[in-house]
Amino acid sequence: METLVLIHAFPLDRGMWQSQVEALADRFRVLTPDVFGFGDSPVPAGGWTMDSMAVELAAWLDSLGIRDKVILGGLSMGGYIALAFAKRFPERLRGLILADTRADADTPEARATRNETIDFVKANSAAVLIEKMLPKLLATNSPSEVARVKELASKQSVEGVVAALVALRDRPDSTAAMKAFKFPTLVIVGEHDAITPPALAEAMMAELPQGTLVTIPGAGHLANLEQPAAFAEAIRTWVMNAKIHES
Ligand code: MLT
Q1: Closest ligand 1 atom, CA of 12?
Q2: What is the per-residue pLDDT across 85-104, written as a single tens digit (0 to 9) for each?
Q3: pTM for the complete prediction?
Q4: Counting Cβ atoms within 10 Å, is residue 45 exposed (0-12), middle (13-18) or buried (19+)?
Q5: How far, in Å, CA of 107 to CA of 184, rounded?
Q6: How many whole angstroms from 246 Cα to the centroid of ligand 1?
Q7: How many of the other CB atoms lie within 10 Å of CB of 166?
Q8: Spatial distance between the Cα atoms of 24 and 104, rounded to a whole number of angstroms
């Protein structure tokens, strides 16, 4: 069975993939690791970077005995990590999924906002941060999805969230590297994504030699939570049409 690794968004944990794990388990061995500092994963001494998380991921796959190529996907922050992995370990990928994410680095203004957010989280908590972020995360704001996002974020530690904000702030630009990707890449974006809007998905598509774009209607930034069935179907269809198993 093919391995599909899915990496979660900020400031959530692997629990955000529950629906996709259930929907895709018949076809894939779905693995959903926690990023450093989230869920059950500790923050490494000295913090982490997108690249060090990619290295950790490769070591973790090794520890599971997974030497075959995998399909690796990530949403938003998870997408940044998936891009870092694709740059460092291209030979380990059968396909890449970049969902509600972007390839460029933070602008000076965005970096300044990260620093303000770091101060805000230190003075408050992840639960308070998510209240502030919520208006931009979901398009439909259904009470059950809002509750789910709050539940996932509220569990996260201040230390973990701060370390991630540093990694997000300092991430490199991956735009140029995408031109050399020799594996099929699925770009997914929520139609109403207010954080990484469809224009950014199209910008990535312009660089990707083997890109497929799927826009998910009725979804915002956390497209997999808001439209779980459509998100899972996008992956299933792409794997079939892009002949991933033969690549
Ligand atoms: C995420 O959803 O992971 C974050 O919005 C990523 C970011 O802030 O750049």
Answers
A1: 3
A2: 999 999 999 999 999 999 99
A3: 0.97
A4: exposed
A5: 28
A6: 33
A7: 15
A8: 30
Q: What spacing in Å lies between the alpha carbon of 92 and ligand 1's midpoint?
A: 25
Of 127, 113, 98, residue with least CA distance to 223: 98
Three-state DSSP string of 123-174: HCCHHHHHHHHHHHHCCCCCHHHHHHHHHHHHCCCHHHHHHHHHHHHCCCCC
**pLDDT for position 242:** 85
Task: Judge if the beta carbon of residue 77 lies within 6 A of ligand 1.
Answer: yes
> What would the pLDDT profile of 54-84 be if each residue is shown by its tens digit?
999 999 999 999 999 999 999 999 999 999 9
Q: Among residues 50, 82, 69, which one has the least CA distance to residue 171?
A: 50
All structural domains of the chain = 2-246 (3.40.50.1820)
For residue 76 and ligand 1, the question of a CB distance below 6 A is answered with: yes
